[in-house]
Amino acid sequence: MADHSHDPHVEHHGPVHQVSDRPMIEYREVYKTFDVPVLAGIALTVRAGETLTLVGPSGTGKSVLLKTTIGLIMPDAGDVIVDGQSVVTADRAQLEAIRNKARYVFQGAALFDSMTVYENIALGIDEPTTKKLGRKEVLRRVVAAIEDVNLDPHVVLNKLPSELSGGMRKRVGLARGIVGEPQILLYDEPVTGLDPVNTAAVGRLILDIAARTKVTSLIVTHDIEGALPITDRIALLQGGKIRFVGTPDEFVRNDELLVRAFAHRSEAEVAAELLAKGEFSLS
Amino acid sequence: MATVAGALAGGLGAVGRVGLGVARHAGLLGRLAWRSGVAIVTGKMAFRDFLHQCYAMGLQSLPIVMVTGTLSGIVTSQQGGYQFTGGIPLYVLGSVVTSSVILELGPVLTAVVLIGRVGARITAEVGTMEVSEQIDALHSLGRDPVAVLAAPRILAGLLTTPALVGIANLIGVIAGMFAAKFTVHLGMESFLYGARSWWHSYDLFYSLLKAVTFGFIIPLISVHMGLLTRGGAEGVGRATTNSVVFMIVAVLVCDAMFPPLFLN
């Protein structure tokens, strides 16, 4: 594969910010089986301050891998190390500490129906910090988070999730993720269901948060185009294993059909045709 | 021979699977009850939700509990009156209605109403939270779903069910008294004389003990079944149906165990 990294005529993808060498999340030979094997020896490291995007065919366990990070799903074998602490061997207090470091932005927002938008977002600030900050400061942070996700606090603050559109709920879920200024942000399909303008806005927000707070971000998405400018590295998960890890530039210039199918729309059409003929497999 | 052995193995396998299922539910229920108790005692329970559950389980259930209490008293009185007319002194009806309502009908019918009105709702609510990742969200936000969901519902059940059963008992007896007056022309004084003649204060304690038991197992099972929900809207429907069956069986089994344990 040709090295285009210093070629001025080749478009550069990905953000420009410093990433530490310290590993923040380490997946060590992670295995998980439900009815069929989903994760079959995932080995991947996300460095502190890095934004890593995880792509792959639908149903290949991307969200499962994301959930193992904070122990929402425990691996059958292997380990996940978050900031030096094993998730698998963590006791209740240690797991709580890991969860307080990380925030998970759920695909369907997962807002609590009986709570207002304010209450939902305020839950993103952990309990000890909430007590320390006091009601006024919590409100200020909630309002700032709502503004960050392009919503009007005066309109949505006291509404129930059922009174919001799908896109608005999604953005409230995102606000709940960022309000506590966590060290790790886990995004599960953050832009699915959003219009192009808000998709771009969320992308800019992820980039802005990463630059501003040095947060470590792991993004599961199908929106490759939107991910390229905001991610430091891309990993491709297929068949329970990581098939590719590299920079966005390396990703778009990779020769493998599987990677090309995800990197370029035109190649996806070719792959779909081969898939229909049985000459290519995603599983 | 091989067929018999195969059938035997199949039968044993089925018994084993049922046994494992029962043991699994029992273990999970025991753990949920213990963790809920710890959350209540240590003050980690969501207090606002507890008040809301008291309102939903207690006040909002009151009208239907009053209707079932009234009808149970009327039916017992009418049937007793029909059977006693011409054979047994009618004032005995006062005792029969009072004992039937307080010992059995008040607690059990209130429990059945709560299973339909409250238990099914809790399972559907918690099940929907499970399939829409809200339970995962609670975990991820460092909140314990047992403290947030189970503990308030169980404590509310423990406190409101005896109150509802007490009201159902009172209304049932009064309704039975009026029904006796209008159907078999038994005067209120005679009805009350009969009720007092065979009255044991322990019966009221027994009735409220049943209420506390039912008020504990209904929210416990309904939350437990909700947390086990898998598979979208269909899964929520299936879990709710299974939960209602589970609660009815549990209430009736407990009810059957009460006389040998507490009446003899």
Secondary-structure class of chain B: mainly alpha
Largest interface (CB < 8 Å): A-B, 23 and 13 residues
**Secondary-structure element sequence of chain A?**
EEEHEEHEHHHHHEHEHEEHHH
- Spatial arrangement of strands, main beta sheet of chain A: 6-7-8-3-9-10
**Count of the domains of chain A:** 1
Mean of residue pLDDT values of chain A = 87
Secondary structure layout:
The complex is a heterodimer of chains A (283) and B (264).
Chain A: E1 23-33, E2 37-47, E3 51-55, H1 62-68, E4 77-82, E5 85-86, H2 92-101, E6 102-105, H3 117-122, H4 127-133, H5 135-148, H6 153-156, H7 166-178, E7 184-188, H8 196-213, E8 216-220, H9 224-227, E9 233-238, E10 241-246, H10 248-252, H11 257-263, H12 265-277
Parallel strand pairs in A: 3-8, 3-9, 6-7, 7-8
Antiparallel strand pairs in A: 1-2, 1-4, 4-5, 9-10
Chain B: H1 2-41, H2 47-59, H3 62-84, H4 92-131, H5 134-140, H6 145-183, H7 188-197, H8 201-227, H9 232-263
Helix pairs in contact in B: 1-6, 2-6, 3-4, 3-6, 4-6, 4-7, 4-8, 4-9, 6-8, 8-9
What can you see in these coordinates?
- The complex is a heterodimer of chains A (283) and B (264).
- Chain A is an alpha/beta fold and 283 residues long.
- Chain A has one domain (23-252): P-loop containing nucleotide triphosphate hydrolases (Rossmann fold, 3-Layer(aba) Sandwich), CATH 3.40.50.300.
- Chain A is built from 12 helices and 10 strands.
- A 6-stranded mixed β-sheet of chain A has the order 6-7-8-3-9-10, with helices on both faces.
- In chain A, β9 and β10 (241-246) form a beta hairpin.
- Mean pLDDT of chain A is 87; it is low at 1-10.
- Chain B has one domain (45-263).
- Classes of the chains: A alpha/beta (283), B mainly alpha (264).
- Chains A and B meet through α2 and β6 of A and α5 of B.
